[in-house]
Design a protein that fits this description.
It contains 15 helices and no strands. The protein is mostly helical and 309 residues long.
Length: 309
Amino acid sequence: MSLRPPTTESPLVRNILIGLAIVVLSLFLLMPLAAVFSEALRRGWEVFLASLHEETALSAIKLTLLAAAISVPLNTLFGVSAAWLVTKFRFKGRAFLLSLIDLPFAVSPVIAGLVWVMIFGSKGWFPPAAMADFFAPLAGLTANIAEYRGFYWFFGPLSEWLANPKIVFAFPGIVIATVFVTFPFVARELIPLMESQGSDQEEAAVTLGARGWQIFFRVTLPNIKWGLFYGVLLCNARAMGEFGAVSVVSGHIRGQTNTLPLHIEVLYNEYQFSAAFACATLLAFLALVTLGMKSVVEHFSGHSASGHK
């Protein structure tokens, strides 16, 4: 028995729709991407490379990578824990917890940045002066450890920060803002996947005497590994490209608290177009790498075939 085709449009209509989609994608995605690389290389490779090796550019790149290196593992741990909780258990407040997970998607990143300034700013709920008094004993203890026990490379900076615990307009604020805006990516990727898989395999493992960690590492994790990897990819891409929340809490201190997106804005406002587009190519390259890895993940996990994001 021959199967009925899912659509009845003629080949002409189908080709017109495909062509229209290609034209729109070319105008709104490919052409801007090509313009970024073209403008970055307009004055030659020497200017391009010099823009990336400039001291403030290297500081922005280092700060961006460090913020992502801290925020992505934290959100991965949270995302797996939250997905496990809401898919394996039924409890009061579950719907409210799901709404909280989605909150960073609904709140503007600029508002999120203002919230952290209100909490940890000099006139906020936890101003640096109050936290310095609270952390004073701990600052003295870490200073003594650094002086008498070594490990100054770790306890030295920690003691200095505890003596002057600045969060907003400093690196901790950038990390907090990045963690907030990338909060839901891993959890929202895993929750639908784990709900579709159900709990049959975990229940079978329990009947065979497996313990909690054994069930997670030998049953749950292998089933969600591609979804987890995909969520981490999205989380990392957003962490490295975040602008709004980080812009509010960073203070725009050049060479100290400017991440790569903020550094690009500064260069563009100063009419250093070649340097701005040279730095922008790094973020564009990250986007292309993310798309390539996304395709690999979909190939191995069958996301496309299943219709899962």
